[in-house]
Amino acid sequence: MVQFQRLAPPDALRPWVACLTVIEHNGPARTANPQRVTPDGCVELNFNLGAPLLRTTATAMQRLVGAYVACRHARPYFVQRTGSTQVISVRFHPWGVPRLPGMAVHELADEAIAADEVFGPEVRSVEEEVLSTMGRAVALGRVTEFLVRTLPSYTTDALVIDAARQLSGTQETHALRKLEHRYGISARRLQQRFHEHMGMAPKAFLRLVRFQRALRGLQQGASCLDVAFDQGYSDQSHLVREFKAFAGLPPFRYGREAHPLNDAMLL
Hints:
By secondary structure, the protein is of the alpha+beta class.
């Protein structure tokens, strides 16, 4: 049985962190099935306290153990456990990607990497403490303390953060033009700053936001036709094309799958 616990971040982490999640699954590997994970623009810092996880994309497979960063991804991938597992996951807002000076955020994409490549060597000490503790509350406290202390040192762009927040809350087709006028910035410069800070263009982010809304609507039982209309797709075929681009299959086939992990991760 899979158990999910989603926790709101403390106030000090809210500018960067969307939520903290604890995922537990106690069961033999023979009962494990690959779980589809669709793009949401988020980066995760994960601490796997149990058996290795297998992450499979169209081109590669990775074994995920200990502390690692699940980078933003543009296509779906699959996760499969190899035994009983417990994962503490810190999910960053799409605009809250940790970025050290000189770090190219667009390179943090479509793979999982060692946590110290983003958070430096100190995260290994946190990993050792988390792996050695028997208490979930103690482990979450140690991870939170580390992030509260380190995240303010990362590079941010207030304009991009504000723009991304605005875009995540709108369905307007001319939202980008309004933002360019609001900030007195050209479309090209806005795109450059999004790419530097979030690793994607504003239009790509808008597509992703709309897909997430569509996914949530379908999860709640709405029809494809209603979701297409509600989310501003030109027609149902447009929704199907976008769904295949982000989920790897059309909505009706996605609905036939069991994907509790992806369902639980919807923000």
